[in-house]
Amino acid sequence: MSYALLIDLTGCVGCGECQRACQRSHGFPEVEAKNLNDKNFTCLDQHGDVFVRRMCQHCEQPACASVCPVGALEKTKAGAVNYSADKCIGCRYCMLACPYDIPKYEWASNNPRVRKCTMCYDERTSKGQPTACSEACPVGATLFGKRDELLAEAHKRIGENPDKYVHRIYGEKEAGGASVLYLTSVPFEKLGFKTTLGNEALPEKTWNVLSKLPDVVATAGVLFSAVYWITHRRDEVRAFEQKMNGKSNVN
User: Fold this and answer.
1) The whole model's pTM is what?
2) How many domains is the chain built from?
3) Domain check: are 104 and 228 in the same one?
4) Is residue 74 located within the same domain as residue 175?
5) Is residue 117 within 8 Å of 23, Cβ to Cβ?
6) Which is it for the CA torsion 53, 58, 63, 68, positive or negative?
7) DSSP letters along 214-237, please?
8) pLDDT digits (tens, 9 = 90+) for 70-119
9) pLDDT, tens digit, for every residue of 166-176?
10) In which domain, by residue range, is 230 found?
């Protein structure tokens, strides 16, 4: 079941409850943030009278997942693009590939990870439960539901109020489509949205190029597999040594 979010910017009042709910669910400091970072997976900025909520688009065919050499990023059946820190080797290719500049890195951490919104996958959406941000919205500006039903709702709103909405659902087709959809009364390009991505899924463009370079792809795959094995083998050895030291201290 593919779930999605429909964010209707005509209804957003800029209260910030979505951001605070996200921060609470991840144990982050509850602070006002204008930009996405490793401790803010959603944020609000303002363009005139319009409040715009930013977050991961959760692309239908995510470029971030397509370039990850170890499968740390994965598009799930529930719609979310999930991240597995235990697989990540820190190459940060995902940060370069994402057309929306979403993944962030914990530069200040001694054990850094890539961080991004996972659409509350582990805790909520994998079980069919709404995201923390949509549940917290007091005015219904963010809706959670099945993607096809939310698209139908968005088209219905445009059809019933043609003078109120821009006749476009952002995320329906951009870069192959996404699981986060937007409606607005102001042209998207005036609100800071990237409107020149086209409708072709970015991984298709990526593999069209890589397919011409089979030797490079094969070599890179072997290299990153080796790095992944070495990194996790080192962690296993460290854990074993700590366990043995603990036994020695007890004796």
Assistant:
1) 0.82
2) 2
3) no
4) yes
5) no
6) positive
7) HHHHHHHHHHHHHHHHHHHHHHHH
8) 999 999 999 999 999 999 998 999 999 999 999 999 999 888 999 999 99
9) 999 999 999 99
10) 213-250
